[in-house]
Amino acid sequence: MNLEITKAEMKRVEDRSFVGRTVFTLENHHSPYEITFFSSRGTEWDYSLSFAGEPGSEEQFLEVDALLENDDDLYNQLLDAALDTQEIPEEEA
Q1: What angle do CA 11, 52, 23 make, to 5 degrees?
Q2: Full-model pTM
Q3: Which domain of life is it from (predicted)?
Q4: Residues in a beta bridge with 7
């Protein structure tokens, strides 16, 4: 299944936790998706999946959610896209 990442971002918020998101489309899916990541330390990640625009097929949404649960490569590709956009503050470099 071909994946296209259209937007990604990651930032550190005031409490020093990480919040990021990646917007992506999958081949043969009509609606784009957005996965939002959260981590208090930047090591273990929670995520939430949603449509990136207008809601689409619930069946396709559930298919993507199952893919994320079972395909570590897909999940890591989406997380890495967000992590790659993060700027490291000078005091941490």
Answers
A1: 50
A2: 0.88
A3: Bacteria
A4: 23
